DNA sequence: TATTGTTATACTCTATAACTATA
DNA sequence: TATAGTTATAGAGTATAACAATA
């Protein structure tokens, strides 16, 4: 069952063709030549938190892509692998809730990971609707390799921040994204 | 010229149908009922900067969408309007470079803004390849209204941070996303 | 030759409605 | 009735190659 998702197959196929287009150039070049051609004014845009956060996230996203090149990981599949590794047997719905991924979007994601042989879906004997998720040995290997590469890249990216600054930054980001449970 | 981009037309049409689905619920609920069903372990994922940044950006993105509902703004079109407002006559390529938007992706973006009557494209008499961008009065009005709403939402979102913390946060984000000009 | 804007195209991520099989 | 997973679909953002007009 479950029609072969061509997108996943295509991704798997495409991967073989990737060589080394860009190594690690996450720069945002504003220069047009040797000189900055015109000065650009940002105005109040620069003072919006959303704008700064988007810019920073863009840098991190590109850096992530460069760091895991060739592994077949995207940031969503990577975070999902990591979550399954730390919570063997977790089901799709719960994993999606925790990572803020909609239920329908989990399907293709998990399918891709099982197609790659990194994750197993097993019927939960206690609730025959649910599917329990487990990492394979290959999945664990990819995850470990991914973590190593990403941590190395991140440490370079954050080299300009002190340990204390990093701690403050993490704390603030968590406070912003922490689930606001109300009623 | 320029075939009518159906996506833009669809968006404009769709807009009229939007009423009030969600008012401002940018919460990430982890709860399934009254009790947290199972405890989930995040492991080293929580210590990755990229992960935390993605989570925070997701919160901001949803909050942005809620705050400008009904105005027809997305975060890209909003930042573009703002840039044009502060740099009248800037051309597409330069605006795209500054905002880190690929050249081809600028086309539909600008087309949408001109279709809405918020931006004018004028041939640059000094370089007949280039198009200079200007805001219309309507564009300026929408931008002003957008800023007012977004700033209000952001102040609520960042209410848990002190002014000093916000300053530090902005400084760090800027240091991370600052263009790294090398050679 | 190089650059501006453009078209075509593809991939990733996000989001909603509706279905199925179980509970 | 409600929930877990699924299908279909659409919108939004990002990315590359190739072209015409102009520099």
Q: What labels describe this entry?
A:
homodimer; 183 residues; mainly alpha; Arc Repressor Mutant, subunit A; two-stranded antiparallel sheet; 7 helices; 2 strands; 55% helix; elongated; disordered N terminus; DNA-binding
Describe the structure.
The structure is a homodimer of 183-residue chains. With 183 residues, chain A is mainly α. Chain A has one domain (48-177): Arc Repressor Mutant, subunit A (Orthogonal Bundle). Chain A is 55% helix and 5% strand. Chain A is built from seven helices and two strands; from the N terminus they run αααααββαα. Chain A has helices at residues 6-17, 49-67, 75-86, 92-99, 103-115, 137-157, 163-177; strands spanning 119-123, 131-135. A two-stranded antiparallel sheet of chain A has the order 1-2. In chain A, a hairpin with a 7-residue loop joins strand 1 and strand 2 (131-135). In chain A, helix 2 (49-67) packs across helix 6 (137-157), helix 3 crosses helix 6 and helix 4 packs across helix 5. Chain A is elongated, with a radius of gyration of 20 Å. Mean pLDDT of chain A is 83; it is low at 1-6 and 13-36. Chain A binds a DNA duplex (23 and 23 nucleotides) through residues 2-3, 7, 10-11, 14, 58, 61, 74, 76, 91-93, 101-107, 124, 127-131.
Proportion of residues in helical segments of chain A: 40-55%
Q: List how many beta strands of chain A DSSP finds.
A: 2
CATH architectural name of chain A: Orthogonal Bundle
Largest sheet of chain A: 2 strands, antiparallel
- How do the strands line up in the largest sheet of chain A? 1-2
Number of helices of chain A: 7
Here the CATH topology of chain A equals Arc Repressor Mutant, subunit A
